[in-house]
Write a structure and sequence with these properties.
This protein is of the alpha+beta class and 514 residues long. The chain has helices at residues 2-11, 16-19, 44-48, 59-169, 173-187, 208-216; strands spanning 33-35, 40-42, 56-58, 218-221, 224-227, 238-247, 253-258, 264-268, 273-277, 283-288, 295-298, 304-308, 313-317, 323-328, 333-339, 345-351, 361-367, 373-377, 393-398, 404-411, 414-420, 426-430, 441-446, 452-456, 461-465, 471-476, 485-490, 496-500, 504-512. It is built from six helices and 29 strands. The chain is elongated. Residues 18-59 form the B box-type domain.
Length: 514
């Protein structure tokens, strides 16, 4: 600091004429005094008139005093003001860096959006080409069918015309009636049923915008920009926060059925007594189902359906707990059930689960609204070496992409999770966290971001998987007093319900992490 002042003094040595100042009130007068009251330099006339009662000092004395205060002020600047200034400059530089990052993020968004648009356009052209090819093939089919039908009608008419003379010359009433009937059939002839169209049908999904945002892959978290996903599908973890811990009076919670009003139907294991509770554990209803249900689900029409494994049927559950059979599945025993968004039902079923049995059946059915079978997942895709792909399908669910997720028990102490696409093709198999020696899954559900949540009975954990079956993380339940988690489901507001041994129920909210 001293060096700075020395340099200033060397470069700025002012003479007396340069430092003389004129009074602001009397421009022709030179200032000779300093008014301490007004903090202003004044001339002789001002000191005698308007500043007469103020504290005035000779300007030379005030200059000396000010000069003596300069080291003190410099010390204050060096000790207090400079650190603050440095901090402020650091903040400015940080803001500049954030602005630069924002520009980079915007550039990434543009780049990723252009990549997606290119892919979308390519897929669009491919679909349009498929539709055109389908239309051309159908048009050819109809032309061939039309020509064949017309040829047969012409031959049929010619034969009738040639036989008309014979019919007219005979008195056989049966032949006359037969001729009249044939002519009537030709007049009333209708072409055969139209072949079903093979063109795709589209229906907008509920989470289209979220999926697109995730594909672009840029989110902000705590002020820092980072990639959330990429086109290849990076893994995104979650943070969980416990919002409620309750206990239901039953041996074990087998499954949940969660309604829009945040009420949960509790299906207890090895018992016919069920009930309805809220997120605080308050019981609103209790009743006897009259049968031990394996699983419950709720449709988009708020109809509650369950599987009665012992009696080989799917039942509708009334508000008072009374069961009404809607489908007899005999000889198959239904276990897991899930209501899809489009109104279909997924049901895991078995008949003689022993693999050694010749007529053993272990499968998953997709049922339409009229309970007719639309899809069966039972065997491997190999045509020459068909094998059962499932061992003991326990629970089943569907994600927002239409993938079918199945919990399949291999033995009484081990299992796996299998995922199939909407046409039944195997997408992935998950056999547990590689760090664990055992894995016994009991239930499965999916969130809106396609993550798969699996209850791991042995390890007291919830396994969280990516949409392609990659292990992401574990959520421990034993830390909150829940041992052996069994049932798991998301309610309509996105809260995760977990139930298990001793009727213990945990309710979490989940947050994305980067």
């Amino acid at each position: 600091m001293e060096n700075i002042f020395e340099k200033i003094e060397e470069k700025h040595i002012l003479n007396k004429e340069e430092i003389e100042l004129n009074c602001s009130e009397h421009p022709r007068e030179i200032v000779i005094a300093f008014c301490d009251t007004c903090q202003k330099a004044v001339c002789f006339d001002c000191s005698r008139e308007s500043h007469r009662d103020h504290k005035c000092f000779k300007i030379e004395n005030k200059a000396v005093e000010a000069r003596q205060n300069i080291p003190k002020l410099c010390a204050q600047i060096e000790n207090k003001k400079l650190p603050t200034l440095v901090t402020t400059l650091d903040k400015i530089n940080h803001c500049k860096s954030q602005v630069s990052k924002t520009d980079e993020v915007i550039e990434k968004i543009h780049k990723r959006a252009n990549e997606l648009m290119a892919i979308i356009m390519e897929e669009r052209d491919s679909l349009i080409d498929q539709c055109k090819q389908s239309s051309i093939s159908q048009e050819k089919y109809y032309q061939i069918e039309d020509s064949v039908v017309r040829r047969f009608i012409d031959l049929y008419s010619l034969s009738l015309h040639e036989a008309s003379d014979v019919v007219k010359s005979t008195n056989n009433i049966e032949l006359v009636l037969f001729d009249s009937k044939l002519k009537s059939q030709i007049r009333d002839f209708k072409p055969r049923a139209i072949r079903p169209s093979s063109t795709p049908k589209f229906k907008s999904g509920r989470s289209d915008r979220e999926v697109i945002k995730n594909m672009i892959g840029l989110v902000t978290c705590d002020g820092n920009f980072a990639d959330m996903t990429s086109l290849a599908g990076e893994l995104v973890g979650i943070q969980v926060k416990l919002v409620s811990s309750v206990r239901y009076s039953c041996l074990n919670v087998a499954s949940f059925c969660l309604q829009d009003n945040e009420l949960a139907w509790i299906n207890p294991a090895e018992s016919t007594i069920g009930g309805v509770i809220d997120s605080k554990g308050t019981e609103h209803k209790r009743f006897d189902f009259g049968a031990e249900l394996s699983d419950l689900t709720i449709t988009d029409k708020n109809v509650i359906l369950g599987t009665d494994t012992k009696n080989k049927r799917i039942v509708r559950v009334a508000n008072n707990g009374i069961l009404k059979e809607v489908l007899n599945t005999s000889p198959l025993q239904p276990h897991g059930i899930h209501a899809c968004r489009n109104g279909d039902l997924l049901v895991s079923q078995m008949y003689r689960a022993d693999p050694k049995s010749v007529d053993s059946k272990r499968l998953v059915h997709r049922l339409g609204k009229d309970y007719t079978v639309k899809l069966t997942i039972q065997f491997t895709a190999s045509f020459f070496n068909k094998k059962h792909i499932l061992n003991h399908p326990r629970r089943v669910t569907e994600n927002s992409n239409g993938d079918i997720i199945v919990v399949d028990l291999s033995t009484e102490t081990s299992g796996r999770v299998l995922a199939f696409d909407f046409v039944g093709k195997l997408r992935f198999t998950y056999e547990g966290n590689p760090k664990r020696s055992k894995f016994l899954p009991f239930d499965v559900c999916c969130d809106s971001d396609l993550r798969v949540f699996v209850s791991d009975f042995f390890n007291h954990k919830i396994n969280v998987l990516g949409c392609d079956g990659q292990f992401i993380q574990e959520i421990p339940t034993n830390m909150e007093g829940l041992l052996n988690p069994i049932a798991i489901a998301f309610d309509k507001k996105g809260k995760l319900w977990i139930g298990g041994k001793g009727g213990k129920i945990l309710i979490y909210i989940t947050h994305k992490t980067i």
